[in-house]
UniProtKB/TrEMBL annotation:
<dbReference type="InterPro" id="IPR006652">
    <property type="entry name" value="Kelch_1"/>
</dbReference>
<feature type="domain" description="FKB95-like N-terminal Kelch">
    <location>
        <begin position="120"/>
        <end position="305"/>
    </location>
</feature>
<dbReference type="Pfam" id="PF00646">
    <property type="entry name" value="F-box"/>
</dbReference>
<dbReference type="InterPro" id="IPR001810">
    <property type="entry name" value="F-box_dom"/>
</dbReference>
<dbReference type="InterPro" id="IPR015915">
    <property type="entry name" value="Kelch-typ_b-propeller"/>
</dbReference>
<keyword id="KW-0880">Kelch repeat</keyword>
<dbReference type="InterPro" id="IPR036047">
    <property type="entry name" value="F-box-like_dom_sf"/>
</dbReference>
<dbReference type="Pfam" id="PF25210">
    <property type="entry name" value="Kelch_FKB95"/>
</dbReference>
<protein>
    <submittedName>
        <fullName>F-box/kelch-repeat protein SKIP4</fullName>
    </submittedName>
</protein>
<feature type="domain" description="F-box">
    <location>
        <begin position="25"/>
        <end position="63"/>
    </location>
</feature>
<dbReference type="InterPro" id="IPR057499">
    <property type="entry name" value="Kelch_FKB95"/>
</dbReference>
<keyword id="KW-0677">Repeat</keyword>
Length: 363
């Protein structure tokens, strides 16, 4: 019989014999095979992995991930970390390009983290990270677990340098930053850790401008912005910004911080914030004018606060309780201040989970 994966084939008497040809597709050079296979949509990658061990290893490899990124074939899916009314966590994934868009549960979360609070949540490459956290009777931990989306598997990873919970987590220059938050008695609250995937290790840093009370974080213009709690001196919201060139944290622009009062996301270098103080209203920071502008209001029939924001291309996904989702294309926000119209993804019928954080992963 013709064999695609180059592993085994059947002889006339029914026995299996080894095939010496190790090509991905018989008769084709591997680079041509990769050229063809890498163009298969991401939703069918699980089917490709069933063809043979060689195909499975390819789809799960860094080579596959890098090739699709280099040739702009990668597709972005959204991952959401949630908690239910019993404070048990769960993870869901959404393919935003699917004709029948719906959130799907990711199985197999490590049992020991299901009840943890204040965990960090981040994506780097084709892996999702759950970091640190604590519990009612458990101090902050340095444990890290990763989910490999290609292999659909969870493993324990290199631990944080510092035990943390309720901290900021962002990616900058292909490194994960775990910043501030609460820790164990021996932890320094004015510190941050960086993870380098090349060495699979964490490195600890200190800066007195970092505070434990972290409200939100975002990466903009190649810098990390951290929105902190209310200042005990001025009673105003304040923020700090990380300068990679100097490796230090500075106080952020007060005008920008003044309107940062909700979940934030950056699209094409522009900062958007969802104000949930009275209904749900999307705001935009205009750097040139140094002022906040209202983009539009979202229908209360579609949004279910508290919401989190995540962006894919030019679209902002507003994800609320039960994973009820509203999609806004920022190219269609010409009517400033009016009710915005966008597509929506209905909530999960059997869920009223609260969304803790949303991240994107491109494969």
């Amino acid at each position: 019989m013709e064999h695609l994966g180059g592993e085994t084939e059947s002889s006339n008497n029914g026995d299996k014999v080894e095939v010496t040809d190790s090509q991905l597709i018989c008769g084709l050079p591997d680079d041509i095979s990769l050229f063809c296979l890498a163009r298969v949509p991401r939703k069918f990658h699980s089917v490709l992995k069933c063809v043979s061990k060689r195909w499975r290893d390819l789809v799960c490899s860094e080579e596959w991930h890098s090739y699709r990124q280099k040739h702009k074939l990668d597709e972005t899916w959204i991952y959401a970390l949630c908690k239910d009314r019993f404070d048990e966590i769960s993870c869901y994934v959404l393919d935003p390009t699917s004709p029948r868009r719906c959130w799907k549960l990711i199985q197999g979360l490590p049992p020991r983290i299901l009840k943890r609070k204040g965990m960090g949540f981040e994506v780097l490459g084709k892996k999702m990270f759950l970091l640190g956290g604590c519990g009612w009777s458990e101090d902050a931990t340095d444990e890290v677990y990763t989910y490999d989306a290609s292999m659909n598997s969870w493993v324990e990873a290199a631990p944080l340098s510092t035990a943390r919970c309720y901290f900021a987590c962002e990616v900058l220059d292909e490194k994960i930053y775990a910043i501030g938050g609460l820790g164990s008695n021996s932890s320094d609250p004015h510190s941050w850790d960086t993870y380098d995937p090349c060495t699979n290790s964490w490195k600890s840093h200190k800066d007195s401008n970092i505070v434990p009370e972290i409200e939100d974080s975002v990466v903009m213009d190649g810098k990390i912005y951290i929105r902190c709690g209310t200042s005990p001196v001025t009673s105003h919201v304040y923020a700090v910004v990380y300068e990679p060139s100097s490796g230090t944290w500075q106080h952020a622009d007060a005008d920008m911080v003044s309107g940062w009062r909700g979940p934030a996301v950056v699209v094409d270098g522009v900062l958007y914030v969802l104000d949930q103080s009275s209904g749900t209203r999307l705001m935009m920071w205009q750097k040139e004018r140094r002022q906040w502008m209202p983009v539009g209001k979202l229908s209360p029939l579609l949004t279910r606060p508290p919401c989190q924001l995540v962006a894919v291309g030019k679209s902002i996904f507003v994800v609320g309780k039960g994973l009820s989702t509203v999609v806004i294309d920022v190219r269609d926000v010409g009517n400033m201040g009016r009710v915005m119209v966008g597509s929506s993804i209905p909530k999960l019928i059997s869920s009223d989970d609260e969304v803790i954080s949303c991240k994107c992963m491109a494969i």
